[in-house]
Amino acid sequence: MEKAYREIQEGRVRGIRMTLFTSLLLIMLVLQACGNNANSGKSNSASASTGGTNTAEAAGGTNASTAPTVLNFGYIGSNKLNVPGGAEGWGFHKGIIQEELKKYGITEVKLTGFPNGPDQTESLISGRLDFGSLGDTPAIIARASGAKTRQISQTTTHIVGYLIGKKDGPKTLKDLQGKTIAIQKGSFMHRYVVGLLKDEGVTDYKLVHMLTPDAAAALARGDVDATTNTGVPALKLIEEGYTHLDDATAHPALLGSSVTVVSEEYLKKFPDFPKVWNAAREKALADLKQHEDEYYQFLADIGNTTPELAKQVNPIDEIKETAFTDDGTKLLEGTKNFLVEEKLAKKDFNIKDWQLQQK
Description:
This protein is of the alpha/beta class. It contains 14 helices and twelve strands. The strands form three sheets. A five-stranded mixed β-sheet has the order 4-3-5-12-6. A five-stranded mixed β-sheet has the order 9-8-10-7-11, with helices on both faces. β8 (180-183), α6 and β9 (206-209) form a beta-alpha-beta unit.
């Protein structure tokens, strides 16, 4: 009897031990599952907190590079629509570019207009902008001064600078000897005037820095003898009776171009950006060409002019279809060499090393 009793007790102990072992095993499996879920949550949280990034699925079912959700873009000019001209402006105006960028996790694009290129490059260098479109001269000067930027496209190579004299003032370029000329320091027009007068042998003149509205007012008062301008504002001054002294159409090497540059800091966050941006821009350009009349009305609205004048100043066929062209690079090389020679650019550099081409 005593032996049987001991066997029953030992069986109960073994059962209890098995139950405890099974319970412990189940607890360990549950804890492991919870741990995996916790690690997964930490990964998502980190992705959301590092510069506001997320990963989206690109068109075609492939994974896109991680991009910050907000993109900061700068352009030259100011208008009621808060967009630039060209394919970029049309793309923003119609929402084409925004839709393309959403595929890569970019949900908001903030556009900021600047009065000139040097002001825009300062914002780019400081980190307030991620990228921007501006004249080639300020972009080159900034790069030569150490700005960590890369050129990702050249949207036009036919920006025409005008040199306009005051009424009853200089009639020829030679008449500018000893005169005062209003320019925007560090801009394409600065480079155009210096190059023009050098070619004409005019060496004794004074340049004063003024933004376009101030320069026009100074010209009207007679405070300056001449000023520079581009596009519609230049043609309006000529229509008002101011003297058309020269324009860059007679000097192909002095034409300006518009470039798009991106900060190297932003490229670290989104390395595929140049390819993504240029593809979006090309899609906007293709749509623009299907709506020419609407596009010229769009330019008239942002330029406070007529579609006819907008077409004269900014014809669609001058918009580059691809990010880089041989003639565009040649123009940049000539501009850079001139700026270095005139000591307007601090340091020489290789234009092709600055360009970032992605296929």
